[in-house]
Structure formats: structure tokens, C-alpha cells
Design brief:
Layout (H helix, E strand, L loop, with lengths): L2 E4 L3 H13 L4 E4 L5 H10 L2 E3 L9 E4 L3 H7 L4 H4 L3 E4 L6 H8 L5 E5 L9 E7 L5 H11 L3 E5 L5 H10 L1 H18 L4 H21 L4 H8 L5 H9 L5 H18 L2
Parallel strand pairs: 1-2, 1-4, 2-3, 4-5, 5-6, 7-8
Antiparallel strand pairs: 6-7
Amino acid sequence: MTILLIGAGRMGGALLKGWIAQGLGPVTVVEPKPGTGLKSLAKAKKIKLLDALPPGKFAACLVAIKPQVLKSDAPRLAAIAKSAVMISIAAGTDTKLLFKAWGNKARIIRAMPNTPGAIGQGITGLYAAKTARPADRKLADKLLSALGETVWVHKEDLIDSVTAVSGSGPAYLFLMAEALTAAGIAEGLPPALAEKLARATVSGSGALLAADKSPASALREAVTSPGGTTAAALAVLMAKDGLPALMKRAVRAARQRAEELR
């Protein structure tokens, strides 16, 4: 299985490492400005590293470049798209634009991974255009599973919702750790201790959420004693204008921005 990777930044680099670990390939990487780490990895693992598009046919081409770059550079991949299944991880770049660049017979799959994929703990939402074959979907699943779990959506506009929830979601949790640290400092904890407590609480709770298949609401209730300290805090967080309402507004804003990027 020959794979072409366009762009080896944070997400592209994570995919490459995952493919190497799974023994997938051979892989050709196109990265005009490779860092020393990528150069060393390519040399050690015999990865073909190029600064321009190569000739030839590939089973899959995974496009891991920024949306604004893809919009201008997509036509350059038209020749590749004649034989390869084209997998794009660019937010807000719909298949309408990609079909225009690659032809109406191009086999296109859109993917939205997230940053925990860098340690194999991510989740990727996938959407297949009608031109994609069952074998293309299977291949996309195999390639993106290098980052963690995969899920499929049946409507393309749901990729924008995936982007808003899981694609952008890690930033929301990192902000929670920041805010919890600041709150701890405000209550008198030394900054280093407040940060350690906050980071361990967020990461440990995430691990528990992954290990325990109970609903998140049940886990929350298990921590909350009636009339206790947690209940007092949740009365603030779950108020009418509290965290649930705020999160809905945040996710809606992220989805709307994804739609604006089209």
C-alpha cells in the first residue's frame, strides 16, 4: 500500500509516526520545510521525504495542510487524485471545493482528527463522498486509526459539528485546566501546586471517563454528596447561565466558524 502524505506538521507528523508503528507503507512525504526531527525520522525509517509533488500512483493521498493553503493548492493534486483515494483533514473545506479542484470522479473522504491523536488517544470523525468506494472507507479507517478511534457521519455538514465538539474540544479542556489553576491560586494555593492539582484532576478524570462506561452524568453524581462542597460548586457551574449554556454557545460558535471557512 503506497501512501502519499502532504504536510507533516503536528497532525501529519503524528499520522506518520502511527503508520510507521503499524508497519504501513511505503510512505512518501511532501514537506517543503522539514524540521530536523522529521529528517531524522525519514532517514531512520527509510521514508521518502520530498519538497515537491512526485510523479506516480498512490493508493491513498492524505492531505494535512492548513485550510487556507489547501484552497489555493488543491488543483496541484489533480493528477494524484486520478488514482488515489483523497483524504483531507482540513476544517471548513468541503467536498464541493475539492471536487472542483480534483474532478467529479475523485474519491474523497474528509476527516477531522484531534490533537490527542499525537499520543494515540484521539478520535477522528470521517465522511465519505458518494464517489468513495467501500474499500476507500476501509483504508481511511486504517490510516486514521493510527491516531485513535474513528467514527463516521452520514452527512457532510456534520463534520462541522465534529470539528466543534472533538476537533476544537481539547482546547476547551486545556482552558478548564488553566481556569482551575487560576481559581486555586485565588484561594491561596502556591501557583506550582495549583497547576499540578488542576492538571492531574483533568487528566485523571479523563482517564476515569475512558475506563468507566457509565454516563458522564453518573460519574458526576457519584462525586457529589448532597449539601457538600462539590454540590456548592456545581450550583454555580450548572446555573442557568453556567457551564452547560456556555458550552452550547462555544460549540455553536465553533461550528459557525467552520461553516464560514468554506
